[in-house]
Amino acid sequence: MDTLLTADVAANAPRFRRKSSTYVDAIHDLPAREELAPAQLYSTESGRLFHSGRIAIATVGLPARGKTHISVALARYLRWLGVKTRVFHLGDYRRENVGPGQSIPEDYFFVNASASSVLLRQKILKKCRDDIYHFLNHENGQIAIYDAVNPLAAGRRSLAKEFAKHDVETLFIESACTDERIIEENVRSVKISSPDYVGWSSEDAVKHYLSRISAKIPHFETMEEPELNYIKAGTTSDQDSYKTDAGLSSQGRLYAEKMGQALLQHRDRERLALVDRGGPDIPLKRLRVWTSTRRRTVETAEWLYEQGYSVRQRTQLSQLNPGVCEKMSERRIRAEMPDEVAKHEADPYHHRYPRAESYHDLAVRLEPIILELERQQDDLLIIAHESVLRVLYGYLMACNATDIPSLSFPRNEIIEIIPASYNNESSSIPIPDLPPEIVPPSPEDLKIPVPPSEAPSGTATPMILGSPRIAPRSPKSSTPRKTGSSPVNGGSTPQEPGEGSLLLVERALRD
Fold this sequence. Notes:
6-stranded mixed sheet; 5-stranded parallel sheet; elongated; disordered N terminus
């Protein structure tokens, strides 16, 4: 007997009571009887799993920016955890209202639409929102995801006020994309296969959908409303953006190779020095490499990977999130956010700028990495952003929290941290023959949330492990380095049995 649950079987099964015009699955079609979700830890009489009340999540963004993908992925995760969630796709309501095979008015998607098109839109919106209220008020629903464009700030404020009248909290998620290649790929692979374009040729469907996007672009307003709760996500073509996952430049690839060569030569010298001191002529401990998941760090490790070394990507090693201060100069930050700057200067470790991470947040995020470091028996090279290396170095060298944001590193060295009986010791491994333009000094003024790891040319400079120092402070706030964290020059210190040395290096240059 064939037990495969096909779409037709699911659509007609009695355990489902609602069917989306776009999808038929366990995200869009709720079971008629309550069931424990696969990852649900507990249940309650009301069916709601926490005490934050009812929440409406509204998407924001131009067409073909991934709003529906985010909505479905979020609903899938929440439903998996047992949170009663439903997605309300506004496009489904439009297709249901117009009927199969019927066309909508030509100006329906335009901001300056005719009166009849505006009335039709309002009718569709009312039906969708009535279903949202029914789900939240009468079906014990906890999270309703409203999948629509929501392009105007005034409309979003009005929507939040309307939900608030029903005691529903609102969270907006804006999905943005400025990469035209990705947008057209989305249109071709997803949008033209929707029910809107049944019977259309591929080229005509793409042309029509792109015209719908163009009609909305001049009127779209990105999320900036300070009184609303919102999250921004997406992809940008800006190569200097924190959100952009750009690859290495030619200088970056050169640096990655020279860094790898310097490290391997250092390991060979260590082995020969051990033999000269009368030790056994045996291979050194295995070298393992950890990087973040960003392309620059992964590509910085490629040369070592090609030499046969193990490389592992760790999501926790991503750099500190700068929030709204991304790409803002320090002068602009001081001018526009003097209160935040004052808080940051008073406590640079715990303070976070709007929508940013603090160094304390980063330290909490790195806890699994730190626990695994303590279990590591092989030599380990970590390639990451300078903000991450500050926290890891601060932990390993027992620095004060107030000192961690001010740690700076030579750009043409690798930091080697060696476990010892009473305290870990650090030394530096020089990287020779680097072009002078990619070895600028480490930034001294570290008041902004993420100190720039940038060369004057705008490319990211190699921040490499050397012996960190505390950047100069005013005499009143000068803090000496913590005892035991000073660099040890010269040869390596003997390692404790079973413990490997740790090497830290920043990712190389980006395109």
